[in-house]
Amino acid sequence: MLPAACAPQPPRPAFVGAVPGAALAPEAPRARVALLFPMTGPNAALGAAMLNAAQLALFEHGNADIEFVTQDTGGTPAGAAQAARTAIADGSRIVAGPLTAAETAAAAIPARAARMPLLAMTNDAAQATPGVWPLGVTPAQQVRRVFEVGMSQGIRRFALAGPQGAFTQQLALALRAAASQQGLPQPAVVLYPGAASPMLAARDLARQLGAASEGEGPLGLILAEGGERARAFAAALPEAGLPIPPLRLLGTASWGNDSVVAAEPVLDGALYPGPDATARIRFEARYRAAFGASPPRIAAIAYDAAGLAAQAARGSDASRLGYALVPVGTVFEGADGELRLLPDGTVQRALSVYAVTPGGPARMIEPAVLPGLPAS
C-alpha cells in the first residue's frame, strides 16, 4: 500500500513490477502504464483497493515488459489533470483511471493533447470520446439490457421515473433511443427533485400514462430509485392507479447491492441488469486469495482498466503509439464479464438480467450477453 494522506509530501510515483517479488531488469526498457488513482484524500481507501486490483490484472494480463506507475490524483479534478501531465512527461503510453467523471474530464484535456489513451472508472457516458473510454456500467448499457428482456417478455410500452440529475437524464435518453429504434411509442418520463414525495411522483406518472389497463398490455417502468425510496415508490404505484401487474417494474444495476430492494415483497419479480455473477465470483475469489480481503465494487472496474492497459502495452513498439495501442473491437474478459471498446469511446458490456426474490438470492432471468455476440 502507498503512504496515507498524512504523508508530509506528495508521494512519489510507485513502480509495480509484472510479478510481485520478481527480479527487476533495469537494463530492459519497459512500456509504462500510468495508474491515475486517489492514493490520498477522501477516496484513499478505494485507491488502495484499486491498486490491488491493478496488480492482479498486471499479473494476469501483463508480462515483464510492462511497468505500472501510480500517479496520485488526490481525488480531485486538479489532481487528476496534474497526474495526467506527470504521466505524459514520465513516458507513460496509456492511462488506467481516474475514478470520477469530474476527474476524467480534467485528465482528458492533457491526455487528448498527447493522444494518450484514457481508460477511466466513471460510468458517465458523456465522457466517452475517441481516446477516452468510461469503463463503469453506464445508464445506456443498463437500459439496453432491461429493454431487450422486457421486449422479449411482451412489453411494448415503457416509462421512466427518477430523481433529477445526470444519471436519470442519461437513462431517459437511452430509453427514448431504444423505443425509437424498435418503433415503439415514446416513453413517459417523470423527473422530480430528489426529496420529492414518491406518492406525488407516482401520481404525476399516472397522469401522463393514464390508467394502465389489461387491454393496453403490460407497461415496463424503469425506476431510478433505490433503498427506502424504491420501496415507497413501488408501494405508491397501485394507489396512484398503476397496479402491479400489468405494470412491470424494472430497476438499475445498483439494485444488485441493495439489501432493502432485495427484501421488499412489493418488488418481487422486478427485473434489473447486473454483471455476470460467475465472472464476479471468480474475480472476488482471486482478489481475496491475493490480498486477504473482499474487494469493493470499484475494484472490478480498476481491474478491467489495468488489464486492458496491460494488454495494450504488451509487446508495443514505436509503430503502435497513441490511440492505436488500444485493443478496439476485441473482446476482453473483465472482472464482471466480457466487454469491448469501440473507436468512439463507448464501451459494450455483457450484462445479465436478474429478478428480485424477497427472502432469497436474486434469480438470473437472462445470462450475460455482449452486444453483437450470440447467447451461449
From TrEMBL:
Residues 32-360 form the Leucine-binding protein domain. Pfam families: Peripla_BP_6 (PF13458). InterPro entries: BCAA_transport, Leu-bd, Peripla_BP_I. One of its GO terms (biological process) is amino acid transport. The keyword Transcription does not apply. Keywords: Amino-acid transport, Signal, Transport. It comes from the Bacteria. Belongs to the leucine-binding protein family. This is Amino acid/amide ABC transporter substrate-binding protein (HAAT family). The lineage of its organism: Bacteria, Pseudomonadati, Pseudomonadota, Alphaproteobacteria, Acetobacterales.
